[in-house]
Amino acid sequence: MSEKVLAYLQDNRERLLEKLNEFLSIPSISTDSVHKPDVAAAADFVSNYLTEIGFTTVEVQETKGHPLVYGEWNGAGEDAPTALLYGHYDVQPADPLELWESEPFKPEVREGRLYARGASDDKGQVFMHLAVFEAYMKSEGSMPVNIKVCIEGEEEIGSENLYQVLEDKKEQFAADFAIISDSGMVDTGQPTVLYGLKGFTGLEFTVHGPSSDLHSGIYGGVVRNPAMALSHMLASLKDEQEVVKVDGFYDGVEELSEEERKLIADVPGENYQQTTGVEKTVSEKGFTAKEHMMARPTMEINGMFSGYQGEGTKTIIPSSATAKLTCRLVPGMDPDHIQQLVIDHLHKNLPEGVTMDVKPEPLSAKAYKVNPDHPLIKTAGDSLQKAFGKEAVYARLGGSIPVVESIDSIFHMPVVLLGFGTPEDRLHSPNESFPLESFDKGMETLVYYWDEVKNTSL
Amino acid sequence: MSEKVLAYLQDNRERLLEKLNEFLSIPSISTDSVHKPDVAAAADFVSNYLTEIGFTTVEVQETKGHPLVYGEWNGAGEDAPTALLYGHYDVQPADPLELWESEPFKPEVREGRLYARGASDDKGQVFMHLAVFEAYMKSEGSMPVNIKVCIEGEEEIGSENLYQVLEDKKEQFAADFAIISDSGMVDTGQPTVLYGLKGFTGLEFTVHGPSSDLHSGIYGGVVRNPAMALSHMLASLKDEQEVVKVDGFYDGVEELSEEERKLIADVPGENYQQTTGVEKTVSEKGFTAKEHMMARPTMEINGMFSGYQGEGTKTIIPSSATAKLTCRLVPGMDPDHIQQLVIDHLHKNLPEGVTMDVKPEPLSAKAYKVNPDHPLIKTAGDSLQKAFGKEAVYARLGGSIPVVESIDSIFHMPVVLLGFGTPEDRLHSPNESFPLESFDKGMETLVYYWDEVKNTSL
To answer: A278–B209: do the CB atoms touch at under 8 Å?
Structure first.
């Protein structure tokens, strides 16, 4: 079956690339209200494409913000599995414009890469799925599984309305599993299946001392310096071996099995010194950097400030000091509980003579993990290997993709994360691009995947 | 003798206040080049006044910046002591103007206080000295001691050119002791002699991690967070009992004698909770807040910053983190040596995986202290008591006055700090004022002082 579909994709490659360029030419910047008509145009592009392909239900669902495009094709019958494709058609702003070598919304191919805002994140990868659906429908007249499509326009502004829609229309969006291509491979040419994501919680806290900045001569030695108090409190959170010292933080964290340590060891190591510019990497005592990043919880200071920040010296005792913290969580950790443990720790470690107020970050996410041996995951790895000619690696991501956690918690279904981006794609930065090799081999992967998945018993 | 002088001051009070208002009306803001002609006009006011009084040498000495007014009167003869009066005729900017209840350069008396920029700092106090000189010369035809006057126009911009002038013209400015009225009393109505000031040193240091901010998900657990490294380093500098943990920091610090602890205990305690707004004061283990502030070295964080400081959360590992530190020093501590000890401590406590660069603060000052039993100091206390009808207290200041240290180190002569300001004067702030009681009783104090000092054997 797949031969005809693959041939269709090859025969129509130029036309499909042109159609992708049309999609990429729409400046659907969701964060900028000036671009609201462009965001709507991108939604129309998706819905029109779904209609062309032959989706039987196509809806542009209005929300309080930007619309969500829903599509459905049930021609594979009741016995075939149903997959939910999630993606987004909105993009990040393109500025600073002067750093782009070609215009962000005039796609251009240079040295095997397609340059445009959204080429990788996520229009390019959404388009590959749609093109594969087209290839099936035009060459075979049907797709191997039932497909529901959910392409939103607010991913770059925090998916403000998505979760409520999914909750409200749970039945409409329900499926056997979800598939998302909005991520990347661990290295260029290294096919990757993500089987886990970290959860997330955070907070900001401010230590208050004197009611205004004080003269450090006249009041030095009399009042607690809030910046020093903050430093003591922050230092108490994590030791120099990168172990979090908050009571109960690691309770419930599942042990890293030998099998999984092996999987992680097989993921080709990024040269962290080179990519980050640090002289030496550090990681939690007892774990490698890759293990810590993929499979152990972390706590980071994202920002802090107090007192005078200009040139030279200003001899004050600052009236307050603030820090912003986030934690990345692994399965077994509840975001709200961890947030409370950190708050309790800060209260316990608040020095005499200062007070504190805490702003808990309202957004949070649980970690997500699927068994890497799950047939849907194994099939993804096998399909990648067939298309790219290289064994796939199974990796967990140190980051969070909130939509995955939401799909998991609303629908209790596995999420297949098949990302075709590469570390060189410059997401959210000037000169975003996507390799044409990923475009071709990615679509090939999807064809192998659908052909195989239709036989998977779920 | 003093009766005639005091009578002159009383008889001429209105005229003298008008003359002071003329001085205060000149917006001699040294930091703002727009006001350069006003600064020059204030210098002329001082030099003209000295000429009117009968000073035999009066010079407006040009510098690279604003001029310095020098005056000399040697009529008391070779056997009489020679005093050097230091003060400044420049003022701080007056903004924000909208917070002034009357215009900053249109002096106005309200409820016994004279409101104007410079009323207390330092035009008002300089003027009192000049008025007393006038009273002596006009009523007695002579002053009790020989007087040299040094009134500069750059105090509010760090006395940029003063120290070089003093070095270059050491012989011209040499005297038996110096007298300065550019400070205040510990409490309104509580006459105060300052017999010590703290020294000063500082530095800024930056901890560098990755070459740019990193995604806290993708790199969390792999690299050392510079903000956390900074917190550990800062926390290592001082413990929660406010004891500085830098090796050698307290070496050479002189013990606080029981006598001095008694003197300090006699200084009326400011209600620190009320003036600073803290719930609880803290001080170095083993010392009261007043002892710590006046007579023990301190270390303060004046500012720090790292990463994201805006609203909400940005999930980054910051590329760097910076802190600004200053120390206030007591006699026995060398500023350069202490600065180096702190730098050494930071290097020793720099965690793996980050680097550091240090910007030592180029300005520094040694602590200054004169024996509170020195006859020049005792005479100051006695004169204050006679004028204010209340026993004077002998206090050390937690702050630094760099000119005092310079006079001490260039001329090796005692400096008498006779300040008539009050804690309510709002120096450097909107609605600066000076109590007329200080004006009257301060001039009376100076008359008693000069009359007594002429007999002091130095």
So the answer is: yes
pLDDT of residue A428: 87
What domains are there in chain A, each with its CATH number? 2-197+367-453 (3.40.630.10), 199-258+282-360 (3.30.70.360)
Q: Is the pLDDT of residue A429 over 90?
A: no
8 Å CB contact between B338 and A226: no
Q: Which of B353, B363, B49 is nearest to B200 (CA)?
A: B363
Report d(CA B54, CA B67) in Å as an integer: 21
Determine the pLDDT at residue A1: 59
Q: State the complex-level ipTM.
A: 0.86
- State whether B317 and A323 contact (CB < 8 Å): no
Measured CA to CA in angstroms, residue A258 lies from A207, A264, A265, B182, B272 at distances of: 43, 10, 10, 73, 60
CA A339 to chain centre: 21
Give the up-direction half-sphere exposure of residue A201: CA atoms within 13 A in the CB hemisphere: 19
Nearest-neighbour CA in chain A from B438: distance (Å): 21
**Tokens coding A457:** 């018993």
Residue B399's pLDDT is: 87
Residues of A in contact with B236 (CB under 8 A): 235
- Average predicted confidence (pLDDT) for chain B: 95
Please give the Cα distance from B370 to B179 (Å, whole number): 13
Q: Which tens digits make up the pLDDT trace of A60-76?
A: 999 999 999 999 999 99
Q: What share of chain B is helix, strand, coil (3-state, %, to 5)?
A: 35, 20, 40
Q: Percentage of chain B surpassing pLDDT 90?
A: 87
- Confidence category of residue B1, pLDDT binned at 50, 70, 90: low
Six-digit token pair at A82? 């149903």
Looking at the complex, does the CB of residue B313 fall below 8 Å from at least one CB of chain A? yes
Residues 6+ apart with CB under 8 A from B336: B201, B364
